Amino acid sequence: MAQKVMRPELLDLVADRFKALSDRARLSLLQELRGGSCTVNELVEATGMGQANVSRHLAILFNHGLVSRERDGVYVRYELADADVLKLCELVCGRLERELAERKQVISGR
Amino acid sequence: MAQKVMRPELLDLVADRFKALSDRARLSLLQELRGGSCTVNELVEATGMGQANVSRHLAILFNHGLVSRERDGVYVRYELADADVLKLCELVCGRLERELAERKQVISGR
DNA sequence: ATGGTATATTCATACGTGCGTATACGCGAA
DNA sequence: TTCGCGTATACGCACGTATGAATATACCAT
Fold first, then answer.
1. Does residue A58 lie within 7 Å of nucleic acid chain D, judged by its CB?
2. Which is it for strands A75-80 and A67-72: parallel, antiparallel or unpaired?
3. Which terminus of chain A has a smaller tally of CB atoms within 10 A, N or C?
4. Phi/psi at B81 (nearest 5 deg)?
5. Bridge partners of B71?
6. Which chain B residues contact residue A62 at CB under 8 A?
């Protein structure tokens, strides 16, 4: 139970943060980064996405503070900003897995 | 640290779940529901949104299992499905508040 | 069944978003 | 500086989504 009322402006910020996470491409980038920092090209190869696309999505994640970046000569290395990002994903995953399990029960139970 | 690899299909489900939460209108509905179950019209009055809009967004939240509903005569009462929804929002809010605090420090510190 | 109220859905429209292609930028080597 | 490579951005297009107005549906009372 945090604060009772949330200011509308904060509501927009929260919505934007969720929006940043509401894309398959960005989630797969975050997942790849769980294994450690990556360059853009490494992520291009790992995900099969186009280079421009990867760069764009990384910029979005960066602007939302979900990843950090650091120049390494010609390369730019991206990495997860912190563990909160994964906590969010795991909360959602946990729910989904429970729901899928329930659905299986219903199907096999009839 | 849950599973190492996430199947692409699950990734889409997660993205969809986040997408359901990535809208100001839906978040304000969830916030109103923190005070207990509400009818559609109560939510219309509380949020100032149009009736059709409220009904649509509630349907989306319902389809994602974020709220439950129950007929009460002519009315339909909606309520939060469980506490996980709020946990998600609070995780994001916590981050945002920390970020805003840091930003204030930077501004006032120069 | 009829009327009235609460809720859901349809339709048209405006806006946002993701993508590929092409191009610009940044950095190091020669 | 000029070249090559890695990364970022601009443009155009196709698709998705949120919205209000109008309409349909569900329920209760009479």
1. yes
2. antiparallel
3. C
4. -65, -45
5. B76
6. none
Q: What is the DSSP string of B97-110?
A: HHHHHHHHHHHHH-
The residues facing A68 across adjacent strands are A79
Q: Contact A14/B27, CB-based, under 8 Å?
A: yes
CB A48 within 8 A of CB A79: no
* Chain A residue nearest residue B92, CA to CA: A14
In 3D, which of A69, A64, A82 has the Cα closest to residue A26?
A: A64
Share of chain A above pLDDT 70, in %: 94
B6 contacts on A by Cβ (under 8 Å): 31, 93
Structure token digits, residue B51? 């009736």
The pTM of the whole model exceeds 0.85: yes
| Cα–Cα dist A9/A30, whole Å | 27
Q: A72 CA to D6 C1', in Å?
A: 11
Q: Which residue has the higher pLDDT, B107 or A43?
A: A43
Tokens coding A108: 């096999």
Q: How far is CA B64 from the centre of its chain?
A: 11
Encoded tokens for B110: 């120069």
From residue B105, give the alpha-carbon distance in Å to each of A82, B27, B60: 20, 28, 39
pLDDT tens, position by position, B30-45 = 999 999 999 999 999 9
Residue to substitute from A4, A5, A24, interface B, most B β-carbons within 10 A: A24
